[in-house]
Amino acid sequence: MSLRLELREITKQFPGVLANDRVSIQVERGKVLGLLGENGAGKSTLMNILSGIYKPDSGTIIVDGEQRVFRDPAEAIEAGIGMVHQHFMLVPVFDVVESVALGAETATGPLGTFDRAAARAKIVELSKRYGLSVDPDAKIESLPVGVRQRVEILKALYRKSDVLVLDEPSAVLTPQETEELFGIIRGLASAGTSVIFITHKLHEVLEVADTITVLRRGKVVGSVKPKEADPEQLAEMMVGREVQLTVDRGQAKVGSVTLSLKGVTVLNQAGEVAVANVDLQIRAGEIVAIAGVQGNGQTELVEAVTGLRPVDSGEMTLNGESLVGASPRKISDAGVAHIPEDRSRDGMVKGMTVAENLMLNSYHRKPFSSGVTLNRSAIEAAAEKIVKDFDVRTPSIHTDIASLSGGNQQKVIVGREFSRTVSLVVAAQPTRGLDVGSIEYIHKRLVEQRDAGAAVLIVSTELDEVLALGDRIAVMFEGQIVGVLDAKDATRERVGLLMGGAAV
Amino acid sequence: MKGLRGVLSSVRLPALSILVALLVGGLVIMFSDLEVLAMIPNNPIGALGEGIGRVGAAYSALLRGAFGNPERIVEAIASGDPVELARAARPITESLLKSIPLMFVGLGVSVAFRSGEFNIGGEGQFLMGGLGATTFAIVLGGAGLPAPIVIFGTVLAGAIFGAAWGFIPGFLKVRAGSSEVITTIMLNYIASLFVFFLLSNWTLIQREDGTQPISKALADYVVIPGILPIPELRLHLGFLVALAAAVAVSWFLFRTTRGFELRTAGLNLAAARYAGMGASSSIVAAMAISGALAGMGGAFEVTGTIKQFSTVVSGGVGFTAIAIALVGGTRPSGVVATALVFGALRNGGGLMGLETSIPIDLLFFIQALVIMFIAAPNLTARIIRLPFRRKSKEAVA
Amino acid sequence: MKTRMLALLTVLGLVVAACGGSTAESPSASVDAGKGDYKACLALDVGGIGDKSFNDSAYEGLLQAEAAGYDTQYSEAKTGADYAANIQLLIDEGCKSLIVVGFSQGEAVVAATKANPDIAFAHVDSTWPDAAIPANFTGLDFQIDEASMLAGYLAATISESKKLGAFGGQPFAGVTRFMDGWLAGANYYAEETGTAVDVLGGWDAVGQTGGTFAPSDNPWGNKEFGKTAAEQFMSQGADVVHPVAGQTGEGTYEAMLAAGKYSVGVDADQCLTLPDYCGTLLTSAMKLIGPVTFATIEKNYGGDLGGENLTGTLANGGVGIAPLNRTEALWTATFGSLVTADVIAKVDALKAKIISGEVKVSDYFTSK
Lengths: 504, 397, 368
Prior knowledge:
The complex is a heterotrimer. Chain A is of the alpha/beta class. Chain A contains 17 helices and 22 strands. Chain A has 3 domains: 3-239, 3-Layer(aba) Sandwich (Rossmann fold); 244-335 and 421-504, P-loop containing nucleotide triphosphate hydrolases (Rossmann fold), CATH 3.40.50; 343-420, no CATH class. Chain A has helices at residues 43-50, 73-78, 96-101, 116-130, 145-158, 175-190, 202-208, 231-239, 298-305, 328-333, 343-347, 354-358, 376-389, 406-418, 436-451, 463-469, 492-499; strands at 3-14, 17-28, 32-36, 58-63, 66-68, 81-84, 107-108, 113-114, 163-167, 194-199, 211-216, 219-224, 257-267, 273-283, 287-291, 313-318, 321-322, 336-339, 424-428, 455-459, 472-477, 480-486. In chain A, β4 and β5 form a beta hairpin. The longest helix of chain A has 16 residues, at 175-190. Chain A starts with a strand and ends in a 5-residue tail after the last helix. Chain B is mainly alpha-helical. Chain B has one domain (11-396): ABC transporter involved in vitamin B12 uptake, BtuC (Orthogonal Bundle), CATH 1.10.3470. The model of chain B is unreliable at 386-397 (pLDDT under 50). By secondary structure, chain C is of the alpha/beta class. Chain C folds into 2 domains: 2-143 and 289-319, 3-Layer(aba) Sandwich (Rossmann fold); 147-286 and 320-364, Response regulator (Rossmann fold, 3-Layer(aba) Sandwich), CATH 3.40.50.2300. The longest helix of chain C has 21 residues, at 173-193.
């Protein structure tokens, strides 16, 4: 057993933030290191140091027992370190061979032309050896996300990487694809490749890692073997306190139909059908959670329900009133709360204060507006109350929302949307990128809304979230609802299969 | 609310930028002087001394030109002679006068900026405002209406003409998706050629002898009242209206629902849509208001300051105004303060040119440097070795 | 009327003296102790020093005044708002004679003239708007068509094809007056000799319409257009072209020089300001702004503060054409054999007739 790679006492300071504080990790040859931590724990900084993008303020990188300094990413690649980023870096119109060889072309021939045949042969050989089945001649844009990820892995292997860093690799995969990925990782490890697997999902590290190192607030909290660890203990290490992993909620008290969709079809930006002929009903007092891999029409469905995107055909009613053609303002005023998928883009205005952000959908109503002017004292009083009620941690209501953490920003949005009586809550990816504490809080608030008699529609790509919250679970695949399950029938496997498009 | 510390911290960057720009400008004065350059090979220290002397002379003239000569002011007050008083106070009143168009157009550009529009058309809107004011001054004044009505009509016409010139690019953006950056630049050309055409061909406004592209003497039709007790000082009502406009813009942006919508659209159009705001009408309204402010600036400049309309009345005010809006942080108070500083520099530049033959173009250079330093705060911080780091945003989380 | 004639004669005399003074007399001879205490000033228009046009010409006059011992100062405007401000600054500096350049300064000059009766104002390129000219104001206008008529006559004389061309920057009176005279000179030649002369470019001097002008987005600095226009005129047979369009004309000179054909310059003696083109520049129709500026300063110093609009004419030397007895090698190589003593004599004869009033430019707006 030999150490392939070691980071010793790495420290990296950003203005106001100690991103890595004397972090040490060790990776053995042919082993999988699970690097576990919440968003903002310093995982990405550490990997950027390892791949030569950042320079550490202090600390050393040791490769095969030799101290190294990476001045740029090329030197890290040369040392055998290959990165697979969360957001893939592929050119859609290239085919697999071109994508893999891009930047590492073996130039041959008198004119230095690209020797495609040689590159292709090597790629075919690599994919056979590691079980990464890919059609080498397929165009990237035609490949499913899971396969694109394999292309990224092939890219690293093609550059003779034997330390593979995977940054949140399961974020875009179905549970089945995730399982396949784990198979690939095990295969790579047994062939001698070391893998660093970065994630915030407990069960994944428990399943695939040989060693788990937990980071919290830039520091290593500890390293454990999966066999000796349990989820509660890991969660506590990650968050720094005891964590409740399930959502407490009683039986739903279901009322009448609040939102009803009949044959709803919605087009995307490019004019293609994104939501195809969807039927869905949500009743007062229940949570319907929509599961699905990202990009299967959920975004467009939410936009249509909230009035941001026109409905192409079909019926959509709220408490019996048609919503087709209604403006976002009208829908909001009719009692629909919307927690948008992209918090930064849609949900808040950076450069405005917390108070102003809290007024974003009610500034035009009494008592906040006289019709022409804003009533500052009413706005400030209401803002102070929401900040208190929703436990928004901010120096003041006059602080720029951009300076709050993601969790507190989301609390501002939730506070804004839930501080009035609503009959329908539409929450898209409500906990994306949040720390465990904030996730717990947001979940609790969503259940509260249900118990207060609102119909709640949750869209999430996190299967755990869907299973934890949904009274009923609908699965979207290629724009259609391919199945609706009651919570008691919804197992990880069944939902996973539906997410992949299989009939149940 | 922001206390004194807040004000100081928001003033620090612009103030430092102006300071550093003046320092660099001093170096340019020093090393563009042929006599100084000729001395360097034989007598470098003497050359340095001479160069510093030249810079001192230039900036002394700049300051006296902008704020007046303290000795003269004291003497004039002691003498009580109105002619002497006028002469002593003139530098500062002229500085204020020069800031009037900068304030109006700077405010206009800021309103557009706040709504996310980059209005490069201040120049054209200013000219159209001048045209509207000239036309209505001649029509209303010629009809012998009472002075207050003529003044009001003149300024209102300037605002309306400017607003129309701002409305067009806003409307085109909303309806046809055309970039306001392009359309406003193009409308500058159209405005200047249109004005030129009318001044050469329209006998209503063209000077009586009819040979040159210049208007009639507007003082015969409208007199924008002066606001100082000494009639020789030509600071006029436009200055007070500009200050009032700043207060009004501030109130509009920060105290009205419309202003709130406009700022939201400017900072985040997607969020404005999400919040159910009519983003399109915000854009059009902001551009029209922006044009109206620039047009009012043109009206006061033409009828109050120059008293004659020609194609050279604007002189790049639309572009200087962009700089002023940026330096002033698009806040009305910041715009007023910056316009006062730039107005003083421009005015002081006259005396500097007179006494030292350093062309006023140096000030345009300094102005450009200020913008550059504002746009690159870290560079400024490095040039001036002062603690300058902004409080990290993440740290507050 | 009598004082006016007297003033004209004075200026004429001074212009002649000034022109001669710079070369013949030693400067110290004309220095007068009182001049050192007399401040003569120039308020330049937008464009300022370096415009190679009227601002520069006026500045030459100020330099001449400086050489003559006057205390001098000048200001440059950047926008309309600077006009009144700069004039006031110069007044505060103690200027006694203040020459203002450019018609756009009209209102500023009028106001300052009224407010400062002790200071002599003069306005280059403009006249007092009405008949009641104040005693401290001199309007300085230029009857440039007289000079360009001479130039047109000369051009028609030496032209082989008897086809001339002309175009302008923009259709201002200040530009088209050159074209009026150019056309009149050609028509005069046709009447005198019975040989038809074609003036290309389409300017109708009677109706004051038509004409060829540079694109309005860049009328004065568009050398490319100057070249194109010259090539078009040449393709229609023209061999002498007169551009009235500032630096746009340099493109014309370049094209005419390359083709071995001729041009006539504007405003200043361009054989001196653009020596590279001396081989194509037959002559130039000149406003003698510099000498007039200097002469006005001298007049004001002598105690005559104004009260008149003065028009520079051939008679008083305020306008003219560049000399035809020049010695520059480039010029003599091209024109030595064309501009003979006989030709010069004919041009002088026309000049005498214009001065005497026997020939009026406007009588020759159409060919007879």
